[in-house]
Amino acid sequence: MKELRVKKEEANQKIEKYVRKYFSTLSLSLIYKLFRKKDIKVNGKHVSKDYILQENDVVRVYVVEYKDEEHDFIKVPYKFDVVYEDENILVINKPVGVLVHEGEDGNDKNTLNKQVLSYLIDKGEYNPDDRGFIPSAAHRLDRNTGGIILYGKNIIALQNLFDLLKEHSNIEKYYLTLVNGKLDKKGNIDFRLKKDEKSKVVKVTKDGLEAHTLYKTIRSNSNYSLAEVQILTGRTHQIRVHMASIGHPILGDSKYGDSLVNKEVAKKYKIKNQFLYAYKFSFKEIKGYLSYLSGKTFQIELNKENKDIIEKIFS
Fold first, then answer.
1. pTM, full prediction
2. First to last CA, the chain
3. Which residues share a beta bridge with 283?
4. Which of 6, 34, 123, 241 is 20 to 30 A from 229 (CA-CA)?
5. Rounded to whole angstroms, how far apart are CA atoms 168 and 289?
6. What are the pLDDT digits (tens) for 212-251?
7. E strands, 109-145, in order
């Protein structure tokens, strides 16, 4: 952790600019990651990158645990499908089992970030020796959740994607999931959620952060349901916790699911991980740099293995 006190001549500027000055060896992508993970505080409180500094503000940057994984870069094989690509953004289908960012223990070397950078190097769109901007994911998915991830290829596009995903008003995110039990035709879950930093488990609690999930049932029988889920907020493990909280945990979810049901579906249907896929992103009316994305929808199809599982369950 690094602590800094703002001098008179340093006041009245955005904290983003201030941090970039004092941590010039860190990539912009990593600095934005620190803001996203709330590891930058002013006077003991989390702040956004747009906070205007005042004289004598105490800035704490919790940077020691982070490794800037993109530098000293070694290319890795990339195994993802490109859903859409232009000069500003890259939309990819993340495979199950791949981390977006390197884990805290540093043991996950073939991250999605490294795969994307390797892909862009081969295209001639990224130079690992350039320590300016590093293309980065605008959000993340759990290791065992597959589906759409949005990447910004330049700083303006990445900032715009961050803002869109933070506001949740002009971008809609939809998931497909298999859950235990027979779901209602549609539902609205708005239980507040809070993450225990020690156990890394998210729980429903009155003093948690607002979380809002909508779902509608696509297929169901007496034992299981296939549902489309839309999240109106972006909390950690939101869908997994919300579905479990109403008695319909996601099949294969080892953290929030039913262990006996998971054993059964693993044996009968070969479901090894939580059956959850970010399958559709829809942009509404967007202004500014990415306005050309207005009205666009990016969607993936489940692979043959998952389609076969669904047909077997509901046959």
1. 0.78
2. 56
3. 171
4. 34
5. 17
6. 999 999 999 999 999 999 999 989 999 999 999 999 999 9
7. 136-137
